């Protein structure tokens, strides 16, 4: 908003009406204090209020019971009782009476320690949570063995008398209810799933919420009316009138919305958001035992409602663009006029450039950064308006927004930075208030405290504390003193964390902050400029306390950073530096160094956004083979050094040491750098979006969505469902023995890389000869240095070329080779030391493909691993209902080289699907991308149960529990102690 400091004449937006200001009505001030007290009391009581928790009870056993899948999440029930009769044990002989995890799971699956009640030699052997009890001889005659376990104790009873009693938590993990017994009439299991996180708001909590929200709103209205001493314009004149800069920024954001890159966490957040429908809360479906994201989750709920319209990439990225437009409006209409009251058209264009260099690389997508950036700008506006008007109400609104922003993400704490930066003048303003200290204090406390209504709307205090404990125990964050890692990553050359686009705004704005503090008060009003610069620096300091240290978090400062960068450029412009030789040259030297560091970065982005050979995505930018970073540094050194020599020469001759007229200012050089970086990012993605429009890009995804096909990458992939179907025909026998080779769960003929020899020649498929499909060989194992394993291609005239094959480990990996022109045959060649090696290779094949949207039609349930979940919007995430996880038929995973999705199936990470993984064998199916068949874009896995399993059906009831109620702790295997 266009406002001025108290020392300056008030602009139109703040012009007072004639006449002396009336005294604030005492009753309204008192009413504001009372409402503030009520709001504060509600905020304190809200976490302790009761919540409604479902109770999911599962029963199994009796005559006709069959093995049943029951993968719990968390892995242990809150209580479990298992019963077996001695008659059932004797009828079984030696074997397993009851088990909750399979005895022979897939070797590639991580183990869980469950319950096993087995009979051996007439004795009962019981093991739970990895702890084995002493054997119990079964007495003659009828008897009953009962196993009971809850978080406090585990007891084994024989005919109702305890024979084993262990204190502590020995609850077993539960993946299924299994038995070797044919007659199950004497067996039974009852358990209650742990649904502590699956709560909903209770009537009592709803009442507290309604009263608290109404009290906050009433307090703000009462404050505003109590301070109503003069009439002011709420918005500046002409705020609605579009300008050319608005059109340019809006057009750029619109283009970026369509073509811009994904972030590394878009898939992660998409999975969390879309699972809310089945879990009933915003939980972490990929790790941490699906612990709720509270107290930082309210914006996920907004995304969930948004996703009910469409889960396509185009639709889900729209909120970040809308927040960008809001931030630009705040910056251009309210912040810049406050910082630079006489700003002209050139300043507005420069503001657009500084805004875009921050917003484009750091705020597109589903991450929380655009929310924090917009919220922080709103707080800046509130603080500046409070100072300009000498009123309390704008400050209370700013604190309310700061609290709401903090509830988005831990990094949102920086939204309080504008209040801290303006603390001294704000205290002066509060001292002049006629509302009284009690009303002021209650209002200032109640406003940010209201954020608790967003932090814990459907969770209890106990569940939030338990979720925090689990996340802390499993880890994934870094301590505050590791903050340097963020800046180390920013300067890492071959990592997307240190991309060119991320370096430019951060490095330039840090330098600009120094320039602003140096120039404030001369070129622009000192108070607002210093405050927003201190806000920026405090924001950087606040990042120290965020648990992770990724460079993407710099996007939290996008709005404030753009303003600081703008002020910094003005501070080192020609007018500011006129007659100041040393600052001029120092500024050029700093811009030289910072610019060279920027150009030393690569134009690199996550996942699908880095596929198509982006300009300078594997090397820093170059011109005519020379690195731009080196050219920039060299040119800057020559300019500064040459100028120093000219000045020295003139001084030695007695002349005036004036700077050369053609010497550029630090501001002009910075503007060139800013515009170049923005143009590079936008033009790069525009080029790849056009040249690869027939394959998959975010732009082609957007176009398909607008045409009514919103399924993203799924529509551009085909799946090799049966590798054996594509085995190439051989032209006669080969010289190497054929052995079975594992190809993602399918056995295929292949060879072992031992000795010297070759296979038969295989005739290429027509699709391979004309370059539409590759030759595929699956490898596993390892070779020693000097060993040779290769594919030879030949045409009618003989050998055409040879391609080396390098196994990379024990996991079967596909190698895709495009046949050279003129080739019509292929064979494998081995020249390896005769000592046996573990390396094997399948015989060459052509992939026989099925479109993925036919294999997995729209709405198919599948586990969507976090790296890829964002671009498969038409598949339904496998649900996690009633304290369990589903046992889906499909899993969609990232490329084979990316193992980051494994956390979802690892018990030590609290992977929600670890129990379900024990029950199946994975059959890998490679995918092939339209227009680029050699690219491993994603993997599809079929989950095949290792034995037929029924589905457990719960009996669900509801109970109201207090906000501090808990049922023991959720146990993380390998991290929480047993017992």
Could you give the topology of this structure?
Blueprint lengths: L25 H20 L5 E11 L6 E2 L9 E7 H7 L2 E5 L15 E6 L2 E6 L2 E2 L3 E2 L6 E6 L3 E6 L2 E7 L8 E2 L9 E6 L7 E2 L1 H24 L17 H16 L6 H9 L1 H4 L18 H10 L5 H4 L1 H22 L5 H18 L6 H21 L3 H14 L10 H5 L1 H9 L5 H13 L2 H4 L5 H14 L9 H7 L9 H20 L6 H17 L15 H14 L2 H4 L3 H19 L22 E2 L2 E2 H25 L13 H26 L6 H9 L10 E4 L18 E5 L2 E7 L3 E3 L3 E2 L2 H4 L5 E7 L6 E8 L2 E7 L4 E9 L7 E7 L8 E3 L6 E3 H4 L5 E4 L11 E2 L12 E4 L20 H4 L2 E10 L9 E7 L4 E2 L3 E7 L18
Parallel strand pairs: 2-34, 29-30, 29-31
Antiparallel strand pairs: 1-13, 1-14, 1-35, 2-12, 3-9, 3-13, 4-5, 5-6, 6-7, 6-8, 9-10, 10-11, 15-16, 17-28, 17-32, 18-19, 19-27, 20-26, 21-26, 22-25, 22-27, 23-24, 23-26, 31-33, 32-33
Report the sheet with the most strands, covering strand number, pairing sense and barrel closure: 8 strands, antiparallel
The structural class is alpha+beta
For the termini, the CA-CA separation is: 61 Å
Total of helices: 29
Shape: flat
Task: Detail the poorly predicted runs.
Answer: 1-23
Helix content: 25-40%
* Strand-residue proportion: 15-25%
How many domains make up the coordinates? 4
Number of strands: 35
Query: For the residues shown, what is the average pLDDT?
Result: 91
The radius of gyration computed from the alpha-carbon positions, rounded to a whole number of angstroms, is 33 Å
């Amino acid at each position: 908003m266009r406002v001025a400091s108290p020392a300056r004449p008030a602009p139109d937006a703040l012009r007072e009406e004639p006449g002396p200001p009336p005294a604030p009505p005492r009753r309204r001030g008192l009413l504001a204090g009372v409402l503030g007290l009520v709001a504060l009391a509600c905020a304190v009581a809200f976490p302790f209020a009761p919540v409604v928790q479902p109770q999911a009870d599962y029963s199994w056993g009796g005559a006709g019971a069959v093995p049943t899948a029951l993968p719990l999440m968390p892995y242990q029930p809150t209580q479990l009782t298992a019963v077996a009769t001695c008659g059932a044990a004797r009828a079984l002989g030696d074997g397993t009476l009851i088990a909750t995890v399979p005895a022979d799971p897939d070797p590639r699956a991580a183990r869980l320690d469950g319950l096993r009640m087995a009979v051996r030699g007439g004795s009962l052997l019981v093991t739970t949570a990895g702890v084995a009890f002493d054997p119990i001889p079964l007495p003659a005659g009828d008897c009953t063995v009962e196993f009971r376990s809850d978080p406090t104790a585990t007891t084994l009873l024989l005919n109702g008398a305890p024979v084993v009693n262990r204190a502590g938590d020995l609850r077993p993990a539960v993946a299924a209810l299994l038995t070797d017994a044919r007659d199950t009439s004497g067996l039974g299991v009852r358990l209650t799933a742990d649904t502590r996180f699956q709560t909903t708001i209770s009537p009592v909590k709803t009442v507290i919420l309604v009263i608290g929200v109404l009290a906050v709103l009433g307090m703000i209205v009462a404050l505003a009316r109590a301070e109503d001493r003069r009439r002011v314009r709420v918005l500046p004149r002409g705020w609605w009138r579009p300008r050319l800069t608005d059109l340019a920024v809006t057009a750029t954001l619109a283009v970026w919305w369509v073509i811009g890159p994904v972030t590394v966490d878009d898939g992660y957040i998409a999975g969390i958001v879309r699972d809310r429908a089945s879990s009933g809360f915003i939980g972490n479906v990929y790790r941490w035992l699906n612990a709720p994201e509270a107290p930082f989750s309210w914006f996920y709920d907004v995304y969930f409602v948004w996703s009910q319209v469409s889960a396509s990439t185009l639709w889900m990225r729209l909120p970040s663009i809308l927040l960008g437009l809001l931030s630009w409006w705040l910056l251009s209409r309210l912040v810049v006029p406050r910082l630079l009251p006489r700003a002209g058209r050139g300043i507005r264009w420069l503001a657009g450039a500084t805004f875009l260099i921050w917003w484009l690389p750091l705020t597109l997508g589903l991450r929380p950064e655009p929310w924090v950036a917009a919220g922080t700008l709103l707080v800046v506006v509130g603080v500046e308006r409070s100072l300009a008007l000498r009123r309390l109400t704008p400050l209370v609104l700013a604190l309310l927004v700061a609290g709401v922003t903090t509830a988005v993400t831990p990094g949102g704490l920086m939204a309080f930075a504008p209040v801290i930066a303006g603390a001294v003048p704000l205290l002066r303003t509060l001292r002049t208030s006629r509302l009284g200290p009690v009303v002021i204090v209650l209002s200032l406390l109640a406003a940010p405290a209201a954020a608790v209504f967003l932090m814990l709307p459907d969770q209890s205090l106990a569940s939030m504390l338990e979720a925090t404990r689990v996340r802390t125990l499993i880890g994934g964050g870094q301590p505050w003193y590791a903050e340097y890692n963020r800046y180390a990553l920013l300067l890492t050359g071959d990592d997307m964390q240190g991309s060119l686009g991320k370096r430019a705004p951060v490095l330039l704005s840090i330098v600009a902050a120094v320039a602003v503090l140096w120039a404030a008060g001369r070129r622009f009003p000192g108070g607002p400029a210093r405050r927003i610069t201190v806000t920026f620096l405090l924001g950087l300091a606040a990042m120290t306390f965020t648990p992770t240290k990724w460079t993407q978090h710099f996007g939290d400062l996008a709005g404030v950073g753009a303003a600081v960068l703008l002020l910094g450029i003005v501070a080192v412009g020609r007018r500011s530096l006129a007659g100041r030789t040393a600052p001029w040259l120092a500024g050029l030297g700093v811009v030289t160094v910072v610019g060279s560091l920027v150009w030393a970065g690569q134009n690199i982005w996550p996942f699908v956004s880095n596929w198509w050979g982006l300009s300078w995505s594997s090397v820093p930018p170059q011109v005519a083979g020379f690195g731009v970073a080196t050219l920039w540094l060299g040119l800057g050194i020559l300019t500064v050094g040459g100028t120093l020599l000219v000045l020295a020469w003139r001084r030695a001759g007695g002349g005036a040491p004036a700077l050369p007229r053609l010497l550029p200012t630090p501001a002009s050089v910075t503007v060139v750098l800013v515009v170049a970086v923005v143009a590079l990012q936008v033009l790069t993605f525009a080029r790849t979006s056009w040249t690869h429009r027939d394959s998959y890009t975010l732009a082609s995804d957007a176009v398909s969505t607008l045409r009514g096909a919103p399924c993203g990458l799924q529509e551009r992939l085909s799946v090799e469902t049966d590798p054996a179907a594509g085995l190439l025909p051989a032209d006669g026998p080969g010289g190497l023995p054929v052995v079975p080779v594992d190809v993602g769960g399918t056995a295929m003929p292949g060879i072992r890389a031992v000795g010297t020899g070759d296979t038969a020649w295989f005739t290429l498929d027509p699709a391979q000869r004309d370059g539409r499909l590759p030759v595929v060989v699956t490898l596993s194992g390892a070779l020693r240095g000097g060993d040779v394993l290769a594919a030879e291609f030949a045409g009618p005239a003989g050998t055409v070329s040879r391609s080396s094959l390098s196994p990379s480990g024990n996991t079967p990996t596909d190698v895709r080779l495009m046949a050279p022109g003129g080739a019509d045959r292929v064979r494998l060649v081995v020249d390896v030391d005769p000592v046996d090696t573990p390396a094997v290779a399948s015989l060459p094949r052509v992939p026989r493909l099925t479109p993925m949207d036919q294999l997995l039609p729209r709405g198919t349930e599948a586990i969507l691993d976090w790296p890829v979940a964002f671009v498969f919007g038409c598949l339904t995430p496998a649900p996690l209902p009633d304290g369990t996880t589903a046992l889906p038929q499909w899993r969609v995973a990232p490329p084979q080289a990316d193992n980051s999705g494994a956390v979802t199936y690892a018990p030590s990470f609290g992977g929600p699907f670890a129990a379900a993984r024990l029950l199946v064998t994975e059959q890998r199916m490679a995918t092939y991308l339209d227009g680029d068949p050699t690219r491993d874009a994603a993997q599809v896995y079929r989950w095949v149960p290792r034995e037929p399993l029924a589905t457990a059906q719960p009996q669900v009831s509801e109970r109201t529990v207090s906000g501090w109620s808990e049922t023991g702790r959720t146990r993380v295997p390998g991290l929480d102690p047993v017992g």
